[in-house]
Amino acid sequence: MEKLVSRNAHNVKAAGSNPAPATNKQSKQYPSMEETKILELDIADAIIDRPKGFSIGHRHFYLYPMTLGKMYLTQRVVENMEIDTAILQSLPFGEALRLVKTKREDCAMLIAYHSLKTKQEVLNNRTVTTRKNFFAKEMEDGDMASMVIMCLAWDNTAKFMHHLKIDAEIERMQKVMAVKDNKNTYNFGGVSIYGSVIDNACERYGWTYDYVVWEISYTNLQLMLKDGIKSVFLSDEEAKRCHVPKDGQVLDGNNIETMQEVIEGMDWS
After folding, report:
1. Are 88 and 153 in contact (CB under 8 A)?
2. Strands (E), the chain
3. Within this chain, do residues 70 and 21 fall inside the same structural domain, yes or no?
4. Which domain holds residue 24?
5. How many structural domains are present in the chain?
6. Domain-ending residue, one of 127, 154, 181
7. 213 contacts 69 by C-beta, under 8 angstroms
8. What is the Cα gyration radius of the chain?
9. Do 64 and 13 have their domain in common?
10. Considering 109, 131, 168, 197, which has the largest number of Cβ atoms within 10 A of its Cβ?
């Protein structure tokens, strides 16, 4: 199989070896410049929904960004694969290769789902089965293992949130909310993905159900919901108890110069 030359393919191949452990706590806590550059490129790819391409012979395919709908479809396949998560974290390529040899049909099905884009395609049993059978027959074990790793490692939401400081802003808001007197406020709903994600996105952005479930990538959906601009009003008494500084920076998305500075500030080299 001929894969496109990309950082993702390089990372997958590197995962087959035994990486040296971090030498100290600081190296784990603070990413290197190379890691930061790769992360910012990954964020850019997520924003533009850039798929990852690969070829088998003269046929070309893409691994498309995961949507909420495809998450539920692939979850059943992943559960059936009986993955050893401990080994997957320490020796990803070795565990992926074991899965290819023992669960080849499931591995091919996982890749097939990731290589189909629309709701119509992924819910068409004939389309999915034809794609799965082709991958199972034509892919070499090592290439399929690399694709399996890429399919299993699609979710970088937590890394993106940390790099963009969204998680820190959420923590800051929680501290503000902790001093607010909500004893007479009752909240209902949001106990499942229907309310916390789907209804939330449909109401906030005016999107259709199908768009939220099948079209926007789950990574972008999560980041938009987490980083949505929110305001919390505190009374004078509550403000006295709040020790969180008012230093949160809100980017003006309508200001072209501000957005240009954000884009230029990322490492694209």
Report:
1. no
2. 2-3, 52-56, 59-63
3. yes
4. 2-154
5. 2
6. 154
7. yes
8. 22
9. yes
10. 109
